[in-house]
Amino acid sequence: MNRYSIITEKNPREIVLLKGYKCAYGKCAFCNYILDNTDDEKEMEKVNFEVLKNIKGNFGVLEVINSGSVFELSKATLKKIKNICDDKNIKVIYFEAYFGYLKRLDEIREYFKNQEIRFIIGIETFNNYYRTQVLKKNFMLNDTVLKQLKEQYQTALLMICTHGQTKKQILSDIEQAKKHFKEVVISIFIDNGTEIKRDEKLVKWFLKDIFPVLNKEKNIEILVDNKDFGVYVQ
Ligand code: SF4
What we know:
By secondary structure, the protein is α/β, with parallel strands linked by helices. It has helices spanning 41-52, 75-87, 105-111, 128-134, 143-152, 167-180, 200-214, and strands at residues 4-7, 13-17, 61-65, 92-96, 116-124, 155-160, 183-188, 220-223.
């Protein structure tokens, strides 16, 4: 387990993996990280305050993830993040926020008045069928929704190389993510005990034919291993 790390390439930043309340949605078929969620506020804050002590502010940029959304962090945790960011002169904070929180993002922007807030959303794929029926992530994209997401979110997360995906779908997802979002994080799926399974043929193809060139793009980060950002629980 490691809950604090420094990312030095492309978009240098500190990153923390905090403990949050239960993900408000909690039904994505591929998700096992919600096992880190807790209802015990004391436990949450004990872990989070300890992790947050590591923050140095040396890049002026902090990413906060919590196996859910920023809205699932306790008030005391948010206050601690705010105080640390103000003290350490952190100007940019990345937070994750599930689609269902789209209308509430300004609450976070207002709370962190001294920082630029950049939101991250797990789109996973632009294929509505695959997202909703296979991955069980329950939102549909159309032009209107996409327009809102582009305005509100900085970063799209894609999950690739799972059974049922095709090369064509993966390439199309990457193209659309690049077109609509300023930053893209692509995770190659790793089997995690859920019903979603990794497709080794797709992984081989992606690593050999796509990764070497795509990985040179400054605004695209590719997680070949889910520990590549240096923070993980399992
Ligand atoms: S919204 Fe995110 S944290 Fe919640 S179940 Fe889905 S992938 Fe997991």
